[in-house]
Amino acid sequence: MAASSSSSDEPSRSVFLGVDVGTGSARAGLFDEEGKLLGSSSSPIQIWKDGACVEQSSTDIWLAVCAAVKAACSKAKVASTEVKGMGFAATCSLVAVDSDSSPVSVSWSGDSRRNVIVWMDHRAIEQAERINSSKSPILEYCGAAVSPEMEPPKLLWVKENLQESWSMVFRWMDLSDWLSYRATGDDTRSLCTTVCKWTYLGHAHMQHVNDKESRDMEACGWDDDFWEEIGLGDLIEGHHAKIGRSVAFPGHPLGSGLTPTAAKELGLVPGIPVGTSLIDAHAGGVGVIESVPQSEAADHDKEAICNRMVLVCGTSTCHMAVSRSKLFIPGVWGPFWSAMVPEYWLTEGGQSATGALLDHIIENHAASACLANQAASQKISLFELLNKMLETMMVELNLSFIAALTKDVHVLPDFHGNRSPIADPKAKGVIYGLTLDTSDKQLALLYLATVQGIAYGTRHIVEHCNAHGHKINTLLACGGLSKNPIFIQEHADIIGSPIILPRESEPVLLGAAILGAVATRKYHSLSEAMKALNAAGQVIHPSKDPKVRKYHDAKYKIFRGLYEQQLSYRSAMAQALS
To answer: What is stated as this protein's family in its record (predicted)?
Structure first.
């Protein structure tokens, strides 16, 4: 048994377990009743990449989840009997299973293990374009256009290209919903996943928001006309059985809790309450959005939360903001009712490649291997080494601030398209200012210019949201990139807003654990649990030097121009080939 046993004379603790399945690993974290991390562990998951197609295995993912949970309990010295509730968060990847819950291939290869279309998969660009050309009124609720990263285009792709698989699938599920189903046997879907990725209209449930005793809710937010119109009318059959007959608020307790089979596999106790799931970025939002200094936390104004935007910075970056009224913002996903914070409308911006882009820029540079060896010999990360190099270069060139190093290098970070606010999956990345220099210093400059390009993209999203009714003046950041001081400081300087970092280092895991805490009924609502378990850490303020602001304003103008030039060039080449 992986989880340790506590002695009988010790009072039993209440511990909440959060599981997060990211792009490369499954992670588990255990938190106490104050939201403090007791221990965490991760286990890698397999991924197959072939051009635009990116696939995973739900069987492999579940094995990784079990390994991570057992290891986390062991590291944290938490007994299985102390875990009182758990929740799942995951990427918005698409899982296909048959009537026996066995995997069904979504791969050209026919490999039945490969039954998950990963969130970043872009095979369905053509299907997304066709869906968007329908001009369905439902598209208003996802920035006027579905992304190829959403589920309807991917479903249409499978139907059109893998007919045998299409006929075999009994359940199509978002990954976090599948994890909850695998744990409890209850296939109730989350308002978070269905509203944000499946075009489900969550506000159809407004009248149910105070229905605390409802175990699950009939799915009343599917728009049957939309599914018929895009060629997926067969998904309406059986009260939408394949895509979700019942939908619940995040944190709602599922079924009878953890099944005996799942409990044995996880090393936990059967019957533990499992809360309805969240997408990983949204779990990060739940784990951080109330992480404000005590002076602000005392403010019970329901509008205060509406002035914040959460950046969940990992492989990609998600930008989450909430409002009391629904705001339709072109090129930005939403408004999604109760998809993250109950009774608030969620606006969701995003950048499809941020951490992935920095890795790409660094790993494909001639100096990468040499620098990686240097970092390893100094027992620091490659990012820490690059940050140290930039500090030294600034001193050597007698500059007053690091950002000035990139005056001749400009990056448009749309290497995997532009998710927000332009919503152009065909957008391409641009690097301006290349020379024959392949030195480590040149890589450091390119790295910094890429960080800045990502931050200018976030500034564009914030400005666009505020121009359409938001009043965002404070950012909260979490995820791997938020631990990089240059990444965070450049964002603060470029956007001109303070950035609050959470006290706990794993807010996505905390958000998932909060779902478990809500499922135990210890808290009356998700909002109450967030206020109890979120806590602020360091606050990063923007530079007060007017030269820094002037410099970034100039670079931001160039950044915006790089995309405008791209459109012009795209048009010129289309005309030349017509």
So the answer is: Belongs to the FGGY kinase family.
Whether the CB-CB separation of 458 and 319 falls below 8 Å is answered with yes
Q: Are 67 and 30 in contact (CB under 8 A)?
A: no
pTM of the complete model:
0.91
Mean per-residue pLDDT, 306-313: 97
Pairing state between β 25-31 and 15-21: antiparallel
Cα dihedral sign, 540-542-548-552: positive
Give SS3 for 251: coil
- The identity of residue 218, as a single letter, is E
Are 416 and 405 within 8 A, CB to CB?
Answer: no
Mean pLDDT of 357-386: 98
Contact (Cβ atoms closer than 8 angstroms) between residue 403 and residue 394:
no
For domain 355-452+546-577, the CATH class is mainly alpha
Q: At 174, phi and psi to the nearest 5?
A: -65, 150
pLDDT at position 381, please? Answer: 97
Instruction: Please give the C-alpha separations between residue 16 and each of 29, 69, 314, 519, in angstroms, as whole numbers.
Output: 8, 12, 24, 10
CATH 3.30.420.40 holds for 15-280: yes
Rounded-to-integer distance, Cα 123 and Cα 141, Å: 23
Looking at the chain, the domain(s) classified CATH 3.30.420.40 span 15-280
pLDDT band at 206 (very low <50, low <70, confident <90, very high): confident
CA distance 278 to 87: 8
What is the rounded CA–CA span in Å between residue 169 and residue 105? 9
Burial class (CB in 10 A: 0-12, 13-18, 19+), 427: buried
| Contact between 420 and 352 (Cβ < 8 Å) | no
φ/ψ of 563, rounded to 5, equals: -75, -40
374-386 burial string, b = 16+ CB within 10 Å, else e? ebeeeeeebbebb
Token pair of 378, please? Answer: 């100094």
SS3 419: coil
**Comparing C-alpha atoms, which of 377, 402, 374, 373 is closest to residue 484?**
402
Cα–Cα distance between 227 and 559 in angstroms, integer? Answer: 38
In the numeric block, the tokens 């149910």 are attached to 208
Half-sphere exposure of 310 (CA within 13 A, CB side): 32
Structure-block tokens of residue 464: 């666009």
| Arithmetic mean of pLDDT over the chain | 94
Distance CA 493, CA 541 (A): 8
What Rg, from alpha-carbon coordinates, does the chain have?
23
Percent of all residues in the chain with a pLDDT value above 90, rounded to a whole number: 92
CB 53 within 8 A of CB 108: yes
Query: pLDDT tens across 208-267, in order?
Result: 666 555 444 788 999 999 999 999 999 999 999 999 999 999 999 999 999 999 999 999
Round to whole Å and give the CA distance between 401 and 496. Answer: 16
Determine contact, residues 525/515, Cβ cutoff 8 Å: no
Per residue in 498-511, is it b (16+ CB within 10 Å) or e — as a string? ebbbbbbebbbbbb
| Mean pLDDT across 370-377 | 98
